[in-house]
Every structure is written in C-alpha cells, then in structure tokens.
Amino acid sequence: MKYTVITGASSGIGYEAALAFAACGKNLILAARRTAALEN
Questions:
Q1: Residue 11 and residue 20: Cα distance in Å, rounded?
Q2: What's the confidence (pLDDT) of residue 38?
Q3: According to the model, what pLDDT value does residue 32 have?
Q4: Residue 37: what pLDDT?
Q5: Which uninterrupted H or E stretch holds 12?
Q6: Angstrom distance (rounded) from CA 23 to CA 33
Q7: Reported pTM
Q8: Residue 29 pairs with which residues in a beta bridge?
Q9: Whole-angstrom distance, CA of residue 40 vs CA of residue 2
Q10: Distance separating the N- and C-terminal Cα atoms of the chain
C-alpha cells in the first residue's frame, strides 16, 4: 500500500493538495503545526 505525505495540510496549498489527493482516492498522511485546524 502506498501513501502520500502532505505537510502543512491545515491551510493553503497543503490543504488544497490534501483535498485533491483524497478525491483521487489516495491514502494520506497529513501533518500540520495547528492540530485543531487539521482535525477539522
């Protein structure tokens, strides 16, 4: 199983990239400094 790692996933380009990869059905590992924003 392959994974896609995205840092800065709570906002901006990282957030948009996470949405795009998720829409393609990718397995994601997300990282961000603001965990509250990431959980939303």
A1: 13
A2: 79
A3: 93
A4: 85
A5: helix 12-23
A6: 23
A7: 0.82
A8: 5
A9: 24
A10: 26
Q: Using CA atoms, how far apart are residues 32 and 1, in angstroms rounded to an integer?
A: 23
Residue 40: partners with Cβ closer than 8 Å, 6 or more residues away: none
Two tokens, residue 25: 């059905």
User: Mapping DSSP to helix (H, G, I), strand (E, B) and coil, where does residue 24 land?
Assistant: coil
> How far apart are the C-alpha atoms of 22 and 20, rounded to whole Å?
5
| Residue type, position 34, single letter | R
d(CA 40, CA 32): 12
Q: What is the pLDDT of residues 1-40, one digit of tens each?
A: 899 999 999 999 999 999 999 999 999 999 999 888 878 7
Provide the pLDDT for residue 26.
97
